[in-house]
Automatic annotation (TrEMBL):
Active site (record annotation): C81, H180, E182
InterPro entries the record matches: Class_I_gatase-like, PdxT/SNO, PdxT/SNO_CS
Enzyme Commission identifier(s): 4.3.3.6, 3.5.1.2
The entry's keywords: Glutamine amidotransferase, Hydrolase, Lyase, Pyridoxal phosphate
CDD domains associated with the record: GATase1_PB
Binding site for L-glutamine: G49, E50, S51, R110, I139, R140
Protein name as annotated: Pyridoxal 5'-phosphate synthase subunit PdxT
Quaternary assembly: In the presence of PdxS, forms a dodecamer of heterodimers. Only shows activity in the heterodimer.
Taxon lineage: Bacteria, Bacillati, Actinomycetota, Actinomycetes, Micromonosporales
Length: 211
């Protein structure tokens, strides 16, 4: 299999957990804090954390526009929880000055499932990812309220709070979940994303759009 380098946006959030999960999934995992580090990766993970803080730090570290441009050029990107918010084209209940990277034409409601004390776990089946349902961990999680025609719904909450809500989506090479697979020992989603990166990579810095 082709070797790929997948970066984790290392400004705030559960960076270490994603680095470990990606390494376990067969990728070379690196932290990304600078534009020059972004240029060297074949794929990128935007971790869970605090979306408003990630937004401010991405601007302060001059990463907002470079990430947007690489997404537009076909870079495979996966966002979990706050990462889902950062990949949305519209965010509800966010700060007025909050910015996102975009990449998925969807409307996401921030902290839709409630506060920290309302965190919960529930099974989620993901389209295209083999095996049983994911044991999904939701922490101050968003949900997706609207998707455009070109967005594929990969999964919904099947029981418990917010049953039926969209919590996993994909548009081209960009994927997002409202839950945290990096906090469990289940590496299927990270392996699936690493395979997506391999399939979308034509060479260093060269990516094609997924069908």
């Amino acid at each position: 299999m082709a070797e790929v380098t997948v970066g984790v946006l290392a400004l705030q959030g559960d960076v270490r957990e994603h680095l470990a999960a990606l390494t376990g999934a067969g990728a070379t995992a690196v932290a990304v804090r600078r534009p020059e580090e972004l240029e060297r990766v074949d794929g990128l993970v935007v971790p869970g954390g605090e979306s408003t803080t990630i937004s401010k730090l991405a601007e302060a570290f001059d990463l907002l526009d470079p990430i947007r441009k690489r997404i537009g050029a076909g870079l495979p990107v996966y966002g979990s929880c706050a990462g889902m918010i950062m990949l949305a084209t519209e965010v509800l209940d966010g700060r007025p000055d909050q910015q996102s990277f975009g990449g998925i034409e969807m409307t996401v409601r921030r902290n839709a499932f409630g506060r920290q004390v309302d965190s919960f776990e529930a099974p989620v089946e993901l389209a295209g990812v083999p095996g049983p349902s994911f044991h999904a961990v939701f922490i101050r999680a968003p949900w997706v309220e609207r998707v455009a025609d070109g967005v594929q719904v990969l999964g919904r909450v099947t029981e418990g709070p917010g049953a039926g809500r969209i919590v996993a989506v994909r548009q081209g090479n960009v994927v997002a979940t409202a839950f945290h697979p990096e906090l469990t020992g289940d590496r299927r989603l990270h392996r699936w994303f690493v395979d997506l990166v391999r399939g979308a990579t034509d060479g260093p810095g060269q990516h094609r759009f997924a069908e």
